[in-house]
Design goal:
alpha/beta, Rossmann fold, 2 domains, seven-stranded parallel sheet, six-stranded parallel sheet, 19 helices, 13 strands, 45% helix, globular
């Protein structure tokens, strides 16, 4: 048998025996808060168990709307976190720059507003694909230093922010490491729906070319739904760039759902308990154009018009950020007998306490173009907590996943009367809802540990292929 025949198995054994290291580039990382932070944070937590040590490159002074310092406690001590400064202004300043005054100003103020509007549009047009591009210069410098100081085997960039993909591409070019691009959201869909996204035709054209250029530099891509993965695979086929495209869903961390210790049952937890005789429906997450609360509000109003005594038993809790339009819709419920509790963004551990307090959980997804390819990250934590669930979603991947575990309680956004009837039935039989019967083996597909092993398998394959090509 020739040496050439023996080389690949020997190479694979060598790669498997030694510890490998990933440079994980994530603009949003603890102490930044929000649903998008969970994915890179949990990879940093669990990849070590799958044979991959992790260096995280993230922001020192992130320009973001929310923070959650508690997420830092979840990270293993051996995760190396390096931080680079961004030249972005504070989030509140950035938000004010893009918002126009809604008052009726005088002539001088109108001139000032017009000038500010022109300046804002010019700045946004220059900062492609997003304002976070102002982080790239320092991030490349700090990332290069980390790669020089310690050997790494691969680079993974998670986005949005999509400008971070350029950081990964620059570091790949300098150090010759395989590059994985992780799409927490599809770039094309984010351009349509994300807060403050640039929707003018020039930006769409520029960003389309940017994305194509970056995909050509990648060695693999990952997305969070099967349909998004297929959309990326089609782009790669058009580019004649046949690299792996893998789906790794968002998920849940089983350790987050361990039974509460007695010490944790403090005054805050007591305050979260519903009033006696109330049926508590809980929604966790941002309310915006992709998670429109309007169908549920209309259903509650319909119920209240026909049976106010029954609607008085309902307690709706919405935890998370809300756009002004969504908050205005929610406030219509103050004219009904139902009780409304609105909570701004809170720490992840507190959000889980609100989930535990629920009689039923509510999942929302708007019926807009591309929604069939979207799966809200919160769905998997809903599944893990095993509560009764009301799902308001169009047909698509979210509906298909929910149907596997909850064949009932699922409605399209236009089925307002059916949603109202679901509420009526639950309120009339309050106390009779049972924990959902979940297939544990099917649920394990969405655990963060399982998904970290999936990512490790992909990285192992890429590193082995990369080493063979280089003859090392």
């Amino acid at each position: 048998m020739s040496a050439a025949t023996l080389e690949p198995p020997i190479l694979l054994r060598t790669l498997e025996q030694r510890s490998k290291r990933l440079l994980l580039i994530a603009y949003n990382f603890p102490p930044v808060g929000g649903a998008g932070v969970q994915r890179p944070a949990k990879w940093a937590k669990y990849l070590g168990q799958a044979g991959w040590d992790v260096t995280v490159l993230t922001t020192e002074n992130p320009s973001v709307p929310v923070r959650d310092d508690s997420l830092l406690h979840d990270l293993p001590a051996d995760v190396n976190i390096v931080r680079a400064r961004t030249w972005e202004p504070d989030y509140r300043v950035k938000k004010n720059l893009i918002q126009q005054s809604t008052a009726t100003p005088g002539l001088v103020q109108r001139i000032k507003n017009a000038a500010r509007g022109v300046a804002s549009r010019c700045v946004k047009l220059a900062l492609q694909p997003d304002p976070q591009v102002l982080w790239n210069y320092d991030a490349i410098r700090v990332g290069s230093k980390a790669l020089r100081e310690q050997p790494h085997d691969a680079i993974l960039v998670t986005a949005p922010a999509y400008s971070s993909f350029y950081i990964g591409a620059a570091l790949k070019r300098r150090f010759g490491l395989p590059l994985v691009l992780d799409y927490r959201d599809e770039w094309d869909l984010s351009g349509k729906y994300l807060e403050n996204a640039q929707r003018d035709w020039i930006s769409r054209l520029i960003q389309s070319r940017m994305q194509r250029r970056l995909l050509r530099r990648a060695d693999a891509v990952v997305a969070t739904t099967q349909r998004s993965t297929q959309a990326l695979a089609e782009k790669l086929a058009d580019l004649r760039h046949p690299i792996p495209a893998s789906c790794i869903y968002n998920g849940f961390d089983a350790e987050d759902f361990a039974p509460c210790e007695v010490a944790s049952q403090d005054v805050a937890c007591d305050a979260m308990r519903p009033e006696r005789g109330k049926f508590r429906l809980v929604y966790i997450g941002t309310l915006w154009n992709l998670t429109d609360i309007n169908p549920l509000v209309r259903a509650i109003e319909h119920l209240d018009n026909h049976d106010p005594q029954l609607s008085a038993k309902l307690e709706l809790v919405c935890v998370g950020r809300k756009t002004p339009e969504q908050l205005a819709m929610l406030n219509r419920l103050k004219n009904t007998a139902a009780k409304l509790i609105t909570i701004d963004y809170c720490e992840h551990s507190q959000a889980l306490q609100w989930l535990r307090s629920a009689s039923s959980l509510c999942l929302l997804l708007s019926d807009v173009p591309g929604a069939d390819r979207v799966v809200p990250a919160k769905l998997f934590e809903y599944l893990a907590i095993r509560k009764d669930m009301l799902t308001i979603s169009p047909s698509g991947e979210t509906a298909e996943i929910v149907r596997r575990f909850y064949p009932q309680g699922q409605f399209a956004p236009n089925q307002v009367h059916e949603i109202s009837n679901w509420l009526k039935q639950r309120l009339a039989t309050h106390g009779d809802t049972q924990p959902a019967l979940i297939d544990e083996s099917a649920l394990d597909e969405f655990s963060r540990k399982t998904q970290s092993r999936q990512l490790a398998d992909l990285l192992n394959t890429l590193v082995a292929s990369h080493s063979r090509r280089r003859g090392t």
